[in-house]
Design goal:
Blueprint: H1 4-7, H2 21-36, E1 43-44, E2 58-65, E3 70-75, E4 85-87, H3 96-111, E5 126-133, E6 139-145, H4 151-164, E7 168-175, E8 187-190, E9 197-201, E10 204-208, H5 218-235, E11 239-243, H6 249-256, E12 262-267, H7 270-283, E13 288-292, H8 295-300, E14 308-311, H9 319-329, E15 333-338, H10 341-349, E16 354-362, E17 372-379
Helix pairs in contact: 5-6
């Protein structure tokens, strides 16, 4: 893949771009096998390759420059004020719909008079533009602001934006008043009637609300859910817990295909649980329910354990408490989806009775050193 930003040294986010893709995959596979160690009986399937262009369904654009000439991209190292950004609105990683939308959104910054946030001076309003595209080509746009001051102007000019970009079905303002390197704040102001972006994955409609997490590589997310569904289906559990369930991806896939009879999804984000419940209700699935709460607390506070547990934690992993509970729980199988093989290896070491029997790397983040790895653990 060729990228003029990388070649010019303006952006090095794709740190491995100069390496042939087959070499990247082989390097990642060697790395994950080395991290997880020599487990007898662990069968590795070949890594799942990702598209190289147009795969990223979410753009997280830092806004710099001026009202008249905004820059959408990243901060230049050592800078941040007017002229301190690198414009990446033509980044080839983004889906075609996002690439089309970003120049229009840059024009909206000008027409609505949204002053880009000046990091060194600590003034200005618009910090980030967050744009997500669904597989159906619909868009969610979020304006991350320092304060509510520009909200009236955004509302005034929004009809013109929606006329020019009718694929925008969800728009919101996120307030992030603090001067620190945080992408978004806790307060969201919805600007459209639609609250969710419909993500159609493997024939299942998942719903994203503005602050919901979803994998940025839709093709790899779809393969991850298909693979998990197949592995769990071969085990044939009756009861399953989906811990860190997010908007319900694994849980809904398992129930809709009959891979499990009773599934409970647990997620700390109430917004994500609302999305999962919406998907469940629309699909008419009776075998799954969702609970808003801490995954570890739910497990430790339960009287009985399920046949199988799915865990899909953030990069920090599941930690010693949940690892210890799983080790002593009697759960027969664990499906562990990890975006950080180092914490996965740590968690596996804390669960010696649950040995990995299947593993597969999915290249969720091509041209970087990061990846997703799915492992099936079986009680020995």
């Amino acid at each position: 893949m060729l990228c003029h930003h990388f070649e010019a040294g303006r952006c090095r986010s794709c740190s491995e771009l100069g390496m042939p893709y087959d070499v990247q995959l082989a390097s990642k596979q060697r790395g994950v096998e080395a991290l997880l160690g020599d487990h007898a009986g662990l069968a590795w399937a070949p890594p799942v390759a990702s598209p190289q262009l147009g795969f990223r369904n979410k753009a997280k654009m830092v806004v710099t420059g001026t009202v008249a000439e905004p820059t959408l991209g990243i901060l230049r190292v050592g800078s941040g004020g007017p002229g301190g950004g690198v414009d990446l609105r033509d980044c080839p990683l983004h889906t075609p719909g996002i690439q089309t939308a970003l120049p229009v959104l840059a024009g909206f910054v000008t027409s609505a008079g949204l002053t880009p946030y000046d990091v060194p001076a600590r003034r200005g309003e618009l910090k980030h533009l967050l744009v997500t595209e669904s597989p159906d080509g619909e868009l969610m746009v979020r304006f991350v602001l320092r304060s509510q001051e520009p909200v009236t102007r955004i509302r005034k000019h929004l009809p013109a934006l929606l006329a020019e970009l009718p694929q925008v079905v969800v728009a919101s303002v996120n307030l992030q008043p603090e001067h620190k390197a945080v992408l978004e704040g806790e307060h969201e102001i919805l600007l459209t009637d639609r609250e969710t972006l419909r993500m159609r994955v493997n024939g299942i409609d998942l719903h994203l609300r503005p602050a919901s997490f979803f994998q940025t590589n839709t093709a790899m997310a779809a393969e991850l859910y298909r693979l998990g569904r197949a592995w769990v289906g071969e085990v044939g559990p009756v009861s399953v817990w989906d811990l860190y369930c997010g908007v319900g991806g694994f849980a809904l896939h398992l129930v809709s295909a009959g891979a499990a009879t009773e599934v409970v999804g647990i997620e700390i984000s109430r917004e994500a649980i609302a999305s999962a419940e919406q998907s469940r209700a629309e699909a008419g699935l009776a075998g799954v329910r969702f609970v808003a709460g801490d995954a570890t607390a739910y497990a430790l506070g339960s009287d009985a354990a399920p046949d199988l547990v799915v865990v899909n934690p953030p990069r920090r992993g599941i930690g010693p408490e949940l690892s210890g509970w799983l080790e002593g729980s009697g759960v027969g199988h664990v499906l562990y989806s990890s975006c950080n093989a180092q914490t996965l290896a740590r968690d596996l070491a804390a669960m010696p009775s649950l040995r990995p029997v299947r593993g597969r790397l999915l290249d969720m983040f091509p041209n970087t050193t990061h990846y997703e790895v799915l492992t099936l653990l079986e009680r020995s």
